[in-house]
Specification:
- The protein is about 45% helix and about 20% strand.
- With about 240 residues, the chain is α+β, with helices and mostly antiparallel strands.
- Strands 3-4-6-5-7-2-1-8 form an eight-stranded antiparallel sheet.
């Protein structure tokens, strides 16, 4: 067996222990990969962070817009109604704050044309004029059709708190009904709030109300001539 010289062994040992060299290209490539991973993670984080912020801002804007819309809607509701009748025009101021639900229903029916052609089927002098369905009076009949004589009515007025004339209301007895009756008082009525949901007052056309009040009626207080609402126009200003 041939002997390996010591010098050859030393050279062979050095070759085995010498570290493997990493090329410059490999180092650069690894660094680039690390940078790309870091940038990718940062971009992903930034994307989702901005998305969550934008979503929160959108919700806040929508919430503020909803509140503004609600307030604007209430503010933009028509405050006046011009009632064109066969006797002339009657302008009514609507009580949006004190009777919001009744006013909303009234406005909705006006826009649907519900009151076009509605007749004033009860005219009681020094009391009320009433428009609605003459065949479906219900509980409203109790305090209109069964009214006492003028002299007795005046005596009752002295015994109860009085309310103004020319107030616009609808029967409490039919508050949940599909229809809608209109009452315009022509004199102060005792305990008016017990009988009517008052939702407005006449500010122009009192003479027209009085002219309707003076028409001839039969024993049931039904006008002998047709008096009807031609149309109701809603307005922001009187």
């Amino acid at each position: 067996m041939a002997r390996i010289k010591p010098q050859a062994l030393l050279i062979q040992s050095k070759k085995k222990k010498a570290p493997t060299r990493v090329s410059l290209t490999t180092i650069i490539t690894c660094n680039l990969l690390v940078i790309l991973v870091v940038l990718s993670l940062y971009a992903t984080y930034n994307h989702w962070y901005k998305r969550s912020i934008n979503k929160l801002d959108t919700e806040l804007i929508n919430s503020e817009h909803s509140n503004d819309t609600g307030e604007r809607k209430k503010f933009d509701l028509p405050g006046y109604a011009v009632m064109e009748t066969s006797k002339g025009s009657i302008t009514v101021e609507l009580h949006k704050d004190s009777s919001p639900e009744v006013v909303d229903k009234f406005l909705d029916l006006c826009q649907k044309g519900y009151f076009k052609g509605m007749r004033f089927h009860r005219v009681i002098k020094h009391f009320v004029i009433q428009g609605g369905d003459p065949h479906n009076l219900g509980a409203a009949e109790e305090w209109t059709l069964h009214r006492k004589s003028d002299g007795q009515l005046e005596t009752r007025f002295d015994a109860f708190p009085k309310h103004e004339a020319f107030m616009l209301g609808t029967s409490k007895a039919k508050a949940n009904a599909k229809g809608f009756e209109i009452f315009i008082t022509t004199a102060p009525i005792p305990n008016l709030n017990d009988k009517l949901n008052v939702f407005g007052r006449v500010i122009k056309g009192e003479d027209v109300v009085q002219e309707i009040e003076e028409v001839d009626t039969d024993e049931q207080y039904q006008p002998k001539s047709i008096i009807e609402i031609i149309n109701i126009t809603l307005k922001q200003e009187p």
